[in-house]
Specification:
This protein is α/β, with parallel strands linked by helices. It is built from twelve helices and 17 strands. The chain folds into two domains: 272 residues, 3-Layer(bba) Sandwich (FAD/NAD(P)-binding domain), CATH 3.50.50; 148 residues, Elongation Factor Tu (Ef-tu), domain 3 (Beta Barrel), CATH 2.40.30. Helix 1 packs parallel to helix 10 and helix 2 runs parallel beside helix 12.
């Protein structure tokens, strides 16, 4: 029996590789380059569209714990990500082009995977994983809407600009990681009060790209807000968010800064850097004026401007089980951001889960439902909890995992709590993997 996987993004690529290594034939459909999305740049699989960071790598962070759980379960893309990582302090950031090429090559070379460069406009019969992503084409989206008997929910995703490192003025900019943790892998552009106020005034008065009619009424996702939306909440919002200066001091001057813009390495050649937290929907001319008002970026060569697009996700609490199989049709699974998981790491993890369970379905085995004490288990239970009345996309976070009771004197010790939750999660996930 074959499995049809729709979409060769992060989730679909992971799902296809999970099935293939279990000797199950996969028909993998990817509509690019026959039909583009407006956000993707290449036709390669598993393309990183927004940031090139998968978030924290350490297990005492929720995202880092999820990465480790994926490795325990035999994840494919997470290992490829580590192989193509670039310095980013405590985060796992990747050379996006090298990563996508490695995933594409691995899929194309796999004898159990047949790739079709074609748009799917109907939900196929048989065992199917729909991982068509937040930019699912309208014909397929309409069929999903028809199947789920419910409207899609929408939110906006914004992409940050990328600049050429050679155009950065290092008389003003400097390399450092916050509090000098790890390698000094970020480029920092410091601002004094006057420079920040000039920047802020340009930002709040800058013209924005007009939304298309079908995009109006959609919501922003809180962890990926455009910088202009953050700025609208108050003059100091950015200084306590993406432009916070704490722990970032230029050792050449020793001065404390009023605000700092950080840039993160975007490719292994260290020629491109993206602006951290600078997702935006400003018009391109306004973006150029804004970026070049930042000390150190006066002559910045912007190789990619920020853009914003609508993301689509299903009402998973009404549609999916924690196995990511639909309640109405056996053998039909959803994975990726379409399910309401937000973030690259989370998308890969849901593809891993869907791939494992599609294989178990074909083999007549009980579908895997992970313990809620694990981060992936907590995430899949959260997005499929039928008690949700106002479901919104979510990242991995400590709030969705059952708490651990600590002695009264230790209850405010967040580090200890994270360490104990992480230890419990990894033990549970290891037990689960041994039973597979």
């Amino acid at each position: 029996m074959e499995v049809t996987v729709i979409g060769a993004g992060l989730a679909g690529s992971e799902a296809a590789l999970q099935l293939a290594k279990r000797n199950i034939k996969v028909n993998l459909y990817e509509m690019r380059p026959v039909k583009t999305t407006g956000a993707h740049v290449t036709e390669k699989f598993a393309e990183f569209v927004c940031s090139n960071s998968l978030g924290a790598a350490d297990c005492t962070n929720a995202s880092g714990l999820l990465k480790k759980e994926m490795q325990i379960l035999g994840g494919e893309l997470i290992n490829i990500a580590f192989e193509h990582s670039v310095p980013a302090g405590g985060a796992l950031a990747i050379d996006r082009e090298a990563f996508s090429k490695a995933v594409t090559d691995k899929i194309n070379e796999n004898e159990n995977i047949t790739v079709f460069r074609d748009e799917i406009t109907e939900i196929p019969d048989g065992v199917v994983i729909i991982a068509s992503g937040p930019l699912t084409s309208e014909p397929l989206a309409d069929k999903i809407k028809e199947f789920t008997k419910s409207e899609h929910l929408h939110f906006f995703d914004a992409i940050a600009p990328i600049v050429d490192v050679e155009s950065i003025n290092f008389d003003k900019a400097f390399y450092a990681s916050r509090y000098d943790k790890g390698e000094a892998s970020y480029i920092n552009c410091p601002m004094n009060k006057e420079e920040y106020e000039k920047f802020y005034n340009i930002l709040i008065n800058a013209p924005k790209i007009e939304l298309k009619s079908f995009e109006k009424g959609a919501k922003f996702f809180e962890s990926c807000l455009p910088i202009e939306v953050l700025a609208s909440r108050g003059v100091d919002t950015l200084r306590f968010g993406p432009m916070k200066p704490v722990g970032l001091i230029d050792k050449r001057t020793g001065e404390k800064n009023y605000a700092v813009v950080q840039l993160r390495q975007d490719n292994s050649a260290k020629t491109l850097y993206n602006l951290v937290g600078f997702q935006t929907n400003l018009k391109w001319g306004a973006q150029k004026e804004l970026l070049q008002s930042i000390p150190g970026l006066e002559n910045a060569n912007i190789v990619r401007y920020g853009v914003m697009h609508r993301n689509t996700f299903i009402n998973s609490p009404k549609i999916l089980n924690p196995t990511l199989e639909t309640r109405e049709r056996k053998g039909l699974f959803f994975a990726g951001q379409l399910t309401g998981t937000e973030g690259y790491t989370e998308s890969i993890a849901s593809g891993l889960m869907a791939g494992i369970n599609a294989a178990r379905y074909i083999n007549g085995e009980e579908l895997l439902e992970l313990p809620q004490e694990t981060m992936l288990g907590a995430l899949t239970h959260y997005i499929t909890d039928p008690e949700h009345t106002n479901f919104q996309p979510i990242n991995s976070n400590w709030g969705i995992v059952p708490p651990i009771e600590l002695p009264k004197k230790e209850r405010k010790n967040k580090k200890l709590k994270a360490e104990l939750i992480s230890k419990r999660s990894l033990e549970k996930m290891t037990e689960t993997s041994l039973s597979l």
